[in-house]
User: Fold this.
Amino acid sequence: MGIPIKRAYFDKGFCSVPVLKTLKRRKIKFILPIPVRGKSGGVRKLFEASASHKTSYTFNGPKHGEWEVSAVVVKKYSKGRCKRKGARWFAYAVAGLPKSVQPHPVFEMYRQRFGIETSYRQMNQVRARTTSRNPVIRFLLVGLAFVMFNLYIANRQHFAICLKNPPLNLPHFRFGLRLFQIWNCCKDNANPCSTSCCPRWIVFSSMPVINESKRRPP
Assistant:
């Protein structure tokens, strides 16, 4: 299709010698986590260092033989988050990274792919369901779901701008994706703002009467 690939971020399930060979043959830059298997040996040998570092790693398999790749090993401290303590190790097979890039930025770069997974998860929340096996219909519903999701993002940003400097005592309000779905349903009604499920009704009916003398100074 002629679409240039700046960098590919893969799930660890794609970490195999055939995939790595294909990426090298097509000269694609990538970051691919190396799965940790077993209790000793293998990729765990890379975790014997005291800090994050760059190195190389060789895959060994009876079917595809040996294949060496550049690797980045990152040591991250949990600091009590998610009830975890101590250090955790992450290993990535990489290609096409500048030599000046340190291990920790590689960890942050790979985290960008989780935003894509979140978008797909939220897209499925608004996607219409069908039992049709027609790929055209199914693809159309996915496209419409992404359009709705992008409209939700735009409306949420607009809503945040409107509440950037709200009056005093404005109650907390969260314009979530579920509320956006209800709003789209209410728009088809004859008088959407007269129903209690309309977001505009929820916002303005919950706003207290503000004394002009108690407004925040500009």
About this structure: The helical segments are 17-25, 103-110, 113-126, 135-162, 177-186, 199-206. The CA atoms of residues 16 and 207 lie 57 Å apart. The two ends are 53 Å apart (CA to CA).
